[in-house]
Specification:
Structural class of chain A: mainly alpha
Helix content of chain A: over 70%
Largest interface: A-B, 24 and 28 residues
Radius of gyration of chain A: 21 Å
Strand order of the largest sheet of chain B: 6-7-8-3-9-10
Number of strands of chain B: 10
CATH architecture of chain B: 3-Layer(aba) Sandwich
Distance between the termini of chain A: 71 Å
Number of domains of chain A: 1
Strand content of chain A: under 5%
Shape of chain A: flat
Oligomer: heterodimer
Number of helices of chain A: 8
Order of helices and strands of chain A: HHHHHHHH
CATH topology of chain A: MetI-like fold
Shape of chain B: globular
Helix content of chain B: 25-40%
CATH class of chain B: Alpha Beta
CATH topology of chain B: Rossmann fold
Order of helices and strands of chain B: EEEHEEHEHHHEHEHEEHH
CATH superfamily of chain A: MetI-like
Number of strands of chain A: 0
Structural class of chain B: alpha/beta
CATH architecture of chain A: Orthogonal Bundle
Number of domains of chain B: 1
Chain lengths: 223, 245
């Protein structure tokens, strides 16, 4: 067997890389959702100081390249704080923040899509701002925001490939390693690309199903 | 008692309400007539606290609408039905009706649902409890809107042109229900363009013109030649509405 041949172990290596990509994607999506939605709720309550502060923060995060943010966190933060930071930590911090910024934007526009008259009606019936958010705004905003959210998540999955440059062993990094060993870039990158495609497709399908369920109320079922 | 005293409201340069005084006692049905833009809807929005007053005061059973601390209690006394229904589109008819009783009055869900089903039955919609607003006709939506207001057991029912978005047949559906409510002694403040109907059910009729009350008369007197009709603007309005019919 020649050194440059593919082996069965390469499949395991690829799956391992895919696992790292998925885990990072899932973790940063969960954290990003929590942070982004919290910022949006602060804005809904027109919280002084905090709401404008996080709006500016989201503005900064979504208008600068993720790779630059990653370098800032991985190389810059340790110098500033005089600590060590692992590639995985840097990746989680950067991607979570970036996802949060875009989720904030989606959540804000979703909340604002709810007609003023509905909010007024709920107020007239004596519902508190929190009750209105939970019962009237959130269910409809979720249905409204899921489309843009799907686009964002599919994109964020691809963005995880950037973390390979700071040495995280994700799918792209595994691809790079296999490519260097086998010197068959066309095959290696096709397989890696297909794996990303499958994962993205899975995200999109899941979201589409969920959206259909959330929009059940607007489906015409006849009088 | 709904007490409206010297209420004024402007949007920019436009005076929408100008020194309006009005009292509605329990058991009365008071219709508000007037051309579009005369301030009728704004008056309703002032009573349920959706607009800040520029002058004057409004209180419902002693609770001041213009005092933020009393607004919540004032709102509990009245129920509003809107011209464009304003049902929550993501909730079924039943959920639309039970939302406020469960969340605000803390009625147990079961109890609230039973009450809502009874209300739906009383307006002939028992079969449509699980339907979403998008699956209902305009008349059905407005009947759900009326049930939603009644579910809060309001002492006063505020009706803001509740049939203006409906065709004649659906209008009849809704007016039928309002006539029953009036006969049952429900207190209503009724903004409308349905003059004949207002004449049938109202104890009093109020006429608004450019934000001012031109007349506030018992129904018979309002339509009498030496009463409301003696006022040229009212006579003109009524004859115009008749012609449109």
């Amino acid at each position: 067997m020649r050194y440059t041949d593919f082996t069965v172990h390469d499949i395991l290596l690829l799956l391992q890389g895919a696992g790292v990509s998925v885990a990072l994607f899932a973790a940063t999506t969960a954290i990003g959702l929590m942070i982004g939605l919290t910022w949006a709720v602060l804005r809904y309550y027109r919280t002084p100081v905090l709401a404008p502060f996080f709006a500016a923060m989201a503005e900064l995060l979504k208008n600068s390249p993720v790779l630059v943010q990653l370098f800032l966190v991985f190389f810059g933060l340790p110098v500033l704080l005089e600590t060590d930071i692992t590639p995985v930590q840097a990746a989680v911090i950067t991607l979570s923040g970036n996802t949060a910024a875009f989720i904030y934007v989606i959540a804000v526009s979703a909340i604002e899509s709810i007609g003023r008259e509905q909010l007024e009606t709920a107020r007239v019936f004596g519902l508190s701002r929190w009750q209105i958010l939970r019962k009237v705004v959130a269910p409809q905003a979720a249905a409204f925001g899921l489309g843009p959210l799907t686009g964002l998540l599919v994109n964020q999955l691809q963005v995880t490939s950037l973390i390979s440059v700071i040495g995280v062993l994700d799918l792209t990094k595994v691809g790079a390693i296999l490519n260097l060993r086998t010197l068959k870039p066309f095959i290696v990158w096709t397989v890696v690309g297909l794996l990303y495609y499958l994962m993205a497709k899975l995200i999109a399908t899941t979201c589409a199903r969920l959206e259909t369920r959330l929009r059940a109320h607007s489906q015409w079922k006849g009088l | 008692m709904i007490e409206i005293e010297g209420v004024g409201k402007s949007f920019g340069q436009t005076k929408v309400l100008d020194g309006v005084n009005l009292r509605v006692a329990p058991g009365e049905v008071v219709s508000i007539l007037g051309a579009s833009g005369s301030g009728k809807s704004t008056l309703i929005r002032c009573i349920n606290g959706l607009e800040k007053l520029d002058n004057g005061s409004i209180s419902i059973d002693g609770f001041r609408v213009d005092d933020p601390k009393q607004l919540q209690q004032a709102r509990r006394c009245s129920g509003t039905v809107f011209q464009l229904f304003h049902l929550y589109p993501h909730m079924t008819a039943l959920q639309n009706i039970t939302l406020a009783p469960v969340e605000v009055l803390k009625v147990p869900r079961r109890e609230a649902e039973d009450a809502a089903r009874e209300l739906l039955a009383s307006v002939g919609l028992s079969e449509r409890a699980e339907a979403y607003p998008a699956q209902l006709s305009g008349g059905q939506r407005q009947r759900v809107g009326i049930c939603r207001a009644l579910a809060m057991k309001p002492r006063y029912l505020l009706l803001d042109e509740v049939t203006s978005a409906l065709d004649p047949e659906m209008t009849a559906e809704v007016l039928d229900i309002l006539a029953k409510l009036a006969a049952a002694g429900t207190t209503m403040l009724f903004v409308t363009h349905e003059i004949d109907f207002a004449r049938q059910i109202s104890s009093r009729i109020v006429f608004l013109e450019q934000g001012r009350l031109l007349a506030d008369l018992p129904t018979a007197e309002f339509f009498a030649a030496d009463g409301g009709l003696a006022h040229p603007r009212i006579a003109q309005f009524l004859s115009k509405m008749k012609k449109d019919h």
